[in-house]
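S.,

As promised, the guanosine-5'-diphosphate run. Input:
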Amino acid sequence: LKINKSDIVAVAVKPAQYPPDDMPEIAFAGRSNVGKSSLLNLLTGRRKLARVSGSPGKTRTINFYLVNDDFRIVDLPGYGYAKVSKSTTAGWGDMMELYFDNRQGLRKVIQLVDARHEPTKLDVQMYDYLRHYGLDGIVVATKADKISKRELQKNISVIRKTLGLSGDDKVIPISALKRTGQEELMEEIEKILEG
Ligand code: GDP
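Predicted complex:
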């Protein structure tokens, strides 16, 4: 699968602002600063599809990108930014639930975690939430360039254990900086869209 074309088609805080529920969607979730914008830019080959955050945690919208005129990539708001107030956090949960509950086209949510660290409590909660909706199964370990191959292998097994992944679930290490790993992810996305 090669992305030839991608354009933002909606920035939403509520369902009325979503695009029509008429095509498959692949969403991306992760804590603020995990490297989600950088990954989306890598996948789409654009420098500014998603804004790489100068101020993490500020994005409180669900962003929909139309890809190749036949599916959408959905950028979910990052979670876990320390300076977000309690009320903002509640809003985040409502936004997720409204989207997950009512979206026929949603095929999978790709969970991002930092390759360097054990998944956080919130990462585990997010993944459990995806499991609850049957949207789990693919994890991307970001910023893989920041550690050695050996450390990466070790951390991937920690990630698998901490998130409670099963044999079929995938952890795909990616570096947006070095531009490595995206082919494997795109293959997985292709499988999801074909299935
Ligand atoms: P977001 O908040 O999840 O969208 O994260 P960003 O894409 O804005 O990235 C957060 C920070 O991590 C930025 O300073 C990026 O330059 C950096 N970053 C993102 N991906 C990578 C990566 O693969 N390798 C390295 N070394 N840094 C990265």
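The radius of gyration is 16 Å. The CA atoms of residues 32 and 78 lie 4 Å apart.

- D.
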